[in-house]
Amino acid sequence: MAQKLSKITLGVLLLFSTMGFSQEENDGVKSPKVNEFNNDSTFKHFATYRDDVAKAQINALKTGALLVRLKTNSNTINKLKAAGNIDLATQIERETFLNNKAIVKGFTNQFKFCPVYFFYSNYSDSVKHKNTAGIFLDTNLTINPAITCNAGFYLIAEQGTLYSSSIGLVTEQEAARARENGTGFKDFAIVLKNRYYIQLHEPFPYFQKGYKIKLYSQYVKGFNDKLQAFYSKNKSYIPNAEIMQYVY
C-alpha cells in the first residue's frame, strides 16, 4: 500500500510541476494569478497593432534566438528531502531529469527556425536582464560556460499552461512592471513568451499543443513548421518605430 501511495503522490506532484501550477516552488517560474479581469490600457492599440507586432517579432526571431526554460522542481525536491521522504524526492528528481532530456532532445533534433539554447528556471531573472553568461546547458543538462548567445533579440519557450492573458501590448519599460493575470485553458503546451515572460499574442504562432512527453519531438517539429510558415508569409515586412517599441 505504501508503495502504491508513493506512486500516486509522485504522479500528482509531477502533474502539477509539468503543468506549472506549483510555481512558487519552481525557481521563480510563476504562472499568472488566476482571477477575473477587464481589458485595461494595454489593449488601447492592441487591435490596431497586434498583426504588425507579430510580423516584426517573427522576423526578429529569425535572426535572433530561442531560449528554452527548463524546470528543476528543486524546491519541491529539497522540501521532500528535508522531510525525510528521500525515495519520493529521488523519483521526482529522476523524472524531472528525464522530462528535461526529452525536451532538449526534441528541440535539438527538430527546431531549425533559429539557434536554440537551454537554461534552468533558477536563471530566469538573469535571462530577463540579458545576463546570460555561464547559464546555458549542453545536451547532458550540464552548464557549459563555452555556450554563449550573442543574439540581440530572443524569445522564451517553455512547457507550461496557456492563459487568456490580461495584457495586450506593452512597451519594454511597461513590461518590467507588468503583472499578467488570466485563466488557464490548456495544459502541457509549448508556450512562447517575451523575455519578461509575458505570453505572446496571435497571429504569432505562440504555442503548440501536446500532452505526451514521448511525442515531444513531433510537437517541436509542428511548432517549428508553424513559425517557418508565418515567417515565409511576412519576411518582407518592415516595421516602423511605433511598432518596434513593442518588440524586445
Helix and strand layout, with pairings?
Elements: H1 2-19, H2 46-62, E1 65-70, H3 74-82, H4 86-110, E2 116-120, H5 124-128, E3 154-165, H6 172-175, E4 182-193, E5 207-209, H7 216-234, H8 241-244
Parallel strand pairs: 1-2, 1-3
Antiparallel strand pairs: 3-4, 4-5
Helix pairs in contact: 1-4, 2-7, 3-4, 4-7
- Structure summary, number of beta strands: 5
Low-confidence spans: 1-26, 31-39
Sequence of strands across the biggest β-sheet: 2-1-3-4-5
Strand-pairing-aware structural class? alpha/beta
Helix fraction by DSSP (H/I, runs of at least 4): 40-55%
Q: Keywords, please?
A:
single chain; 248 residues; alpha/beta; five-stranded mixed sheet; 5 strands; disordered N terminus
What does this protein structure show overall?
With 248 residues, this protein is α/β, with parallel strands linked by helices. The chain is 41% helix and 15% strand. It is built from 8 helices and 5 strands. Strands 2-1-3-4-5 form a 5-stranded mixed β-sheet. It is globular and about 55 Å long. 34% of the residues are buried. Mean pLDDT is 86; it is low at 1-26 and 31-39.
What's the quick description here?
The protein is α/β, with parallel strands linked by helices and 248 residues long.
